[in-house]
Amino acid sequence: xxxxxxxxxxxxxxxxxxxxxxxxxxxxxxxxxxxxxxxxxxxxxxxxxxxxxxxxxxxxxxxxxxxxxxxxxxxxxxxxxxxxxxxxxxxxxxxxxxxxxxxxxxxxxxxxxxxxxxxxxxxxxxxxxxxxxxxxxxxxxxxxxxxxxxxxxxxxxxxxxxxxxxxxxxxxxxxxxxxxxxxxxxxxxxxxxxxxxxxxxxxxxxxxxxxxxxxxxxxxxxxxxxxxxxxxxxxxxxxxxxxxxxxxxxxxxxxxxxxxxxxxxxxxxxxxxxxxxxxxxxxxxxxxxxxxxxxxxxxxxxxxxxxxxxxxxxxxxxxxxxxxxxxxxxxxxxxxxxxxxxxxxxxxxxxxxxxxxxxxxxxxxxxxxxxxxxxxxxxxx
Length: 381
Hints:
The protein has 381 residues and is α+β, with helices and mostly antiparallel strands. The chain is built from 10 helices and 7 strands.
C-alpha cells in the first residue's frame, strides 16, 4: 500500500498530520457571507423581472437601491478598509536578526479592528501573514499585542501593532481609532434599522418609505462625518525599518458616502413626486398591489363617492321638480273636470264654490287650454 499513498509526492512519504498546516487568509468570511446573501436576492429578482408588466422602472430602481444600501451598511460594518496604508519594506523577519528580505506590509483599519498583512516579495521565500487585532474593549488591543509577541509574529507586524497598543506618551492612535469606530458603528446600526423599516414601509405606505429612505441616507452621511471628525488630530505615520506607512481613507468610507448620497437623493425625489402627484409612485412590492384592496382603487372609489354625494342635492332638486309637475298636472285635470261638470249643469252648491275657487287661483304649471271658451259657459241658478 506504500506505493498507493506516496504516488505523485516529491518526498515519497505518506501524508503527515502531526503538524499544523496553516494557510494564509484569502478572504473575509463575514464579507463573503454578506455578498452571497445579497447577491442571491438580487439574482432572484433579476430572474423574475422579465415577468413584471407594470411599474417596471420604479420597481427595478427601488429594489436595486435598497439592496445596494443594505449591502453597503453590512460591508462597512464588518469591513477593514476605513483607513488603509501599504508600502514595501526591507526588514528582518524576526527581531535582532541580520537576515533581511523584501516584503509588502499593509495596515487596514476597520471600525472595531485592524488587519496587518505581511507578504514576502521574494520567489524562494513563502511568507504570508494576516493578523487581526481587535479593540472592542479598552484593554483588548494590548492583550492581543502581548499574545502576538508570545506567538512570535513577524517583527514588521509587531512594529505596526505597537502604535495602536500603547496609550501613553503621545501614542493615542489606538484609543482615537477605537472611539471613532465605536460611535460610527452605533450610527451605522441605526442606519440598518432605518433601512429595514424603509423596506417595510415601501410595501405598505410608499410615502413613508420615502421618508425613511431620506432618514437612512442622513444616518449614513452622519456616520462618515462622525468617523472623520473623531480621527486622530495628528495623522498616523508608522515607521517600519526606514519605510513609512501613511494612512488614508479607504473604500469602505467612500462606499458609505456614495450610498448615503444616493439614498438621500432618491428619497427626496420620491417625496417630491408624491407631493406634486399624490399617490402616483408605486411598485409591485406593495402588499395589496393590483388587487381590489389596492390603495389606488380605494382612493379612486372614495373620490367617486365624494363626487356622488356632492351631486345628491341636484338629484333631489330634479326629483322635486318632477313631483311638482305631476301635482300640477293632477290639479289641472281636477279643475278641468270640475268645469266640465259646471258646463253640463250637474253641479251642486259645493261643487260650484270649488269651481269658482279654481278659477280664481292661478297656476304656475298650466300647460293646457280649457275645453270650452269662456263665452260658452252657463251659470246655474
